[in-house]
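Sanity check

After download, print the first record. It should look like this:
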Amino acid sequence: MAKKGNRIQVILECTEHKESGVPGTSRYITTKNKKNTPDRIEMKKYNAILRKYTVHKEIK
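Expected C-alpha cells:
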C-alpha cells in the first residue's frame, strides 16, 4: 500500500500583475511540505509577461 505523505501541490500567483493592468496571469505550480510550512509561501519567480522577477504568493 502506498504511503500518504505531507507534500501537497500549491499554485503561486504573481502579486504585481493584477496592479499593472496588463491582461493575462503568471502562475506556477510547485509542491510544499504542509507539516514544515503550514502558512502560505512566497517566492520570487519570473513573470514572462512583465519580463522581470516578481513576488508570487500561494493561492487556494
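If your output differs, re-run the checksum step. Summary of this record's structure: The helical segments are 16-20.
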